[in-house]
Amino acid sequence: MKAAQQVIPTLFGGGLGWGRTPSRRWLLMAFAVAAGLLAALWIAPAALAHGGIDAGQEPWTAWNTNPLPTILVLLAAYIYLNGLNNWDRPSHPVNNWQKASFLFGLFLIFFALQSPLDPLSDHLLSFHQVQHFILRMVAPMFILLGAPLTPMLRGMPSWTRQGIIRPMARNQYVRQLYRLLTNPIFTIFFFLGSLYLWQFPGAFNLALRNDEVHALMHLTMSASGFLFWWVVIDPPPHRSRLHYGLRVLYLGLIVLPNTLLGAAITFSSQPGKHLYEAYTEVVQPYGLEWHIDQQLGGLMLWVPGDMMSIVAAGIVMIMWYQREEGQHRAEARAR
Prior knowledge:
Structural class: mainly alpha
Order of helices and strands: HHHHHHHHHHHHHHH
Shape: globular
Mean pLDDT: 84
Number of strands: 0
Number of helices: 15
């Protein structure tokens, strides 16, 4: 437990020894970088679309042949590591655990978009829900735990920082947009709204039949995930505007809507009837019946999502307790 108490503050950036508020300029520059990367992830799937699993093909050998997700993931890893290498005197050093967390988050994006999970998601709802869970909840969390803001900015070419990002950061409309997108009320509505929108049968079926819409689905889910975790996690030099107690409430607010949606999908499953008719137009790998696949898909949305929110809320409560204890000890020493 003692080791965990030393590690958790580092992960969430709200440690007892870190209280410096970052400049708005650096946050806006980092926001511009994140927006560019998410836009690229939207363009990538549409540029060279896959066609699912071919007839007679072994599902686990059906890797997505689109090279752009791999290129983008490798580029992000290079910029991050290059930025760390160029950071001679870090004001908030990035430890090895954080580096591993960032790289693991990138690997999860690669796995979700490039591995057989992606073609399989065109045939099975259960695999599609796993892919969405990775893109909207797991990968953004690990990437932000890696404190990527300063390393990504330092790793970029100087002409990009000076010629593109800096002017954007000075623009008053970009500042207003940043304040809106990082408002906790907006982030939680965007997070839940994008989830409900794309689980609606009409939107989901359209995404399965149209590559551009499918790419938009991935973009909005990933963006909502990054903005959601941005309010909870403190990747230095960022500091969340929410007190720890409000972060616990924030995480708890998504449990009930997630449960209701997952339960609705799970219990609406009936033999011969599928909410997502586009899946009836393709081959079902492994001979899995449609209604069983839908039940599994609802459970994959329901159970892991709730469990992750509850675990994260528990960690934030531990952080809150540690912070309060540290303040009490500091006040006692000052007397």
